[in-house]
Design brief:
Flavocytochrome B2, Chain A, domain 1; 4 domains; 12 helices; disordered N terminus
């Protein structure tokens, strides 16, 4: 093992800035812009990212794995607020004089050029030509959905975005459903497979949708005091955190996350029940039990109740409709000069647990347009004595949010006080605890508030781990200045308490007179220094690593998690792959 303590390299090992390449910036400023920091040390073009032909320069937000969203520099006057103002100006953005049309797939297919681009989303057709220059991902990315049904592609990246509100002024009409065409027939590189297209350019539903896993079932039974709903998921990794419950009077909705699918039970109960219900999961069988206390003990029910809309539905999580709840701010505390920690409680009767590494959406109406942003759920602290027991039961969630002065949603979040309400959507994410199975080294690359998904990972693998755990955890934390380092004191204390945990701080814009630690931005040197490498297909420990991890050669099995601004995450993925790691050793957190 390696020794504890906050690991700060006084030699200022970093990635130098070349005359022909620009460094990758580690985190944003308070206004959301990436700052320029001093780089020290030697550099080569191969160690600097994004490289000329890398995905983060070319754009790959609809494909590839792991996904990393990419943004492009927009022209002046093309911000989100500019788009909102254009929509309110009275200019016809439909391209059809404001008429409402019934659009066939054949007609939709004809509108596939930048000057005349239509897209279908959830059965509605929009003219996206006016919006192309406002799209943060660039014209080419949005044009992937031109002339076809782009719902599936949209859900892969922007599921939480309210497209209906964003493109309301561009509405052309309804897509006729008899001949659906979808980007579901698109391969990983974005090209349509000829074998999936029909004679008229339509796509067969059978070729688009592979058979779903067997749909779960549910049953119920009762005693004199309780009614128990038993859901048979057949997934032996199901945990209580995968079960969300909404109860309002007799209306009961239970949503269970089963790997990448959501199963819903939605009922009007025969009789009312209390809100102090209990959730039990059985890993050996995959059974979930919801134990509901009867309001009238001893009264025997003749049935569980009437099924409501969506009962027994089983859909892919990314395609499921986001359910928003009016939640209440319990408390607001300051984390740094531009970051706050919110404690939020769901409405009475709601159980809203969020799996580790997953995020929720906050929805806000901005100048008449509904916008939603994703935020990773965190803990109130890294200290065991400061944990909130209501987190485990889904009765409170904590969010660490950076307030951008020119943002669309965070200025509103920055005004919230205890007692205020806000609209919160259910959890979304792909990380699973099973990814930690057999891992020897957990390397966490975080930039700015990309630290948020690492909080619960650190607590789970370090604080909550068995005493005999040998998992080595290393957080490499990129920021601009010392004042931007979130929970630094807590991280330093943790590093002193646990030999298995180490933290390295990297700053890109701090004054040399006050900082003698590592400077610069993420680069190949950092990856080579802190991430086990692959040699002839065998993962090995770095012999020259200053972390001196004690693992047997050939038994090293790292998992590297990355999160930060899109350009940071994309660069990290490319650097890790160039280092020899495969996708199974990399997880990128992205909203």
């Amino acid at each position: 093992m390696f020794g504890g303590g906050a690991f700060i390299i006084s030699s200022k090992l970093g990635c130098g800035k070349s005359k022909t390449d620009s460094p990758v910036h580690s985190s944003g400023s308070s206004s959301g812009n990436l700052g320029k920091g001093k780089m020290a040390g030697k550099s080569t073009k191969n160690s600097l990212f994004p490289a000329t032909n890398s995905p983060q320069r070319l754009g790959n937000s609809f494909g590839g794995s792991p996904k990393a969203q990419n943004k492009v520099a927009l022209k002046p006057g093309r911000s989100l607020m500019d788009w909102i103002r254009l929509g309110r100006s009275g200019v016809d953005l439909t391209g059809v004089g404001g008429k409402t049309l019934n659009v066939t797939t054949a007609e939709l297919l004809q509108h596939n050029t930048p000057d005349d681009a239509w897209i279908a989303l959830r059965g509605k057709v929009y003219n996206i030509s006016p919006y192309l220059e406002y799209h943060p991902g660039g014209v080419d990315e949005l044009m992937r959905g031109a002339g076809v049904d782009g719902t599936q592609l949209f859900d892969e990246i922007h599921k939480w975005v309210n497209a209906e509100s964003m493109l309301e002024k561009c509405y052309v009409g309804k897509l006729e459903a008899e001949s659906p065409i979808s980007k579901g027939g698109m391969d990983r590189k974005g090209s349509n497979k000829a074998s999936s297209l029909g004679p008229n350019g339509t796509v067969s539903i059978a070729t688009l949708k592979p058979p779903d896993p067997e749909t779960p079932t549910y049953d119920w039974f009762q005693s004199s005091k309780v009614v128990t709903v038993a859901i048979y998921t057949r997934w032996k990794k199901v945990l209580p955190e995968h079960v969300t419950i909404d109860k309002n009077s007799k209306n009961l909705r239970v949503t269970v996350l089963i790997e990448k699918h959501l199963f819903k039970v939605h009922l009007e109960l025969e009789e009312d029940v209390g809100t102090d219900y209990t959730v039990k999961t059985h890993a050996e069988s995959g059974k979930v039990e919801i134990i509901l206390p009867k309001y009238e003990p001893e009264k025997q029910w003749t049935s569980l109740g009437k099924p409501l809309r969506g009962d027994m539905s089983y859909v892919k999580a990314m395609q499921a409709e986001t359910v928003y709840r009016e939640c209440t701010v319990k408390s607001v505390s300051v984390v740094s000069h531009d970051v706050v920690l919110l404690a939020i409680t769901p409405p009475e009767g709601c159980r809203l647990p969020v799996p580790l590494g997953h995020h929720v959406q906050i929805k806000h109406n901005c100048s008449g347009m509904e916008l939603a942003r994703s935020y990773t759920v965190v803990l109130p602290s890294l200290e065991p004595e400061r944990q909130d027991p209501d987190v485990e039961t889904g009765r409170v969630i904590y969010l660490m949010i950076k307030i951008y002065s020119n943002g669309a949603v965070t200025p509103y979040i920055g005004t919230l006080n205890a007692g205020d309400t806000l609209s919160v959507g259910g959890s979304v994410g792909t990380f699973q605890l099973s990814q930690l199975s057999g891992v020897s080294h957990l390397v966490l690359l975080a930039a700015g508030t990309g630290f948020t998904p690492m909080i619960r990972l650190i607590y789970h693998t370090v604080v909550c781990a068995p005493e005999d755990s040998t998992l080595l955890v290393h957080l490499v934390f990129y920021n601009k200045k010392m004042c931007d380092i979130l929970w630094r004191e807590q991280l330093d204390v943790l590093a002193k308490q646990y030999d298995r945990f180490r933290v390295t701080y990297v700053l890109s814009a701090e004054d040399e007179t006050v900082w003698d630690g590592l400077t610069g931005h993420i680069c190949a040197t950092h990856v080579q220094q802190y991430v086990p490498h692959q040699d002839n297909g065998v993962l090995k420990e770095n012999q020259n690593s200053q972390t001196k991890q004690k693992c047997s050669v050939g038994k090293v099995n790292p998992l590297v998690c990355a999160c930060g601004p899109p350009v940071f995450t994309a660069a990290a993925i490319e650097l890790l792959k160039a280092h020899g790691l495969t996708s199974s050793h990399i997880h990128a957190f992205s909203g």
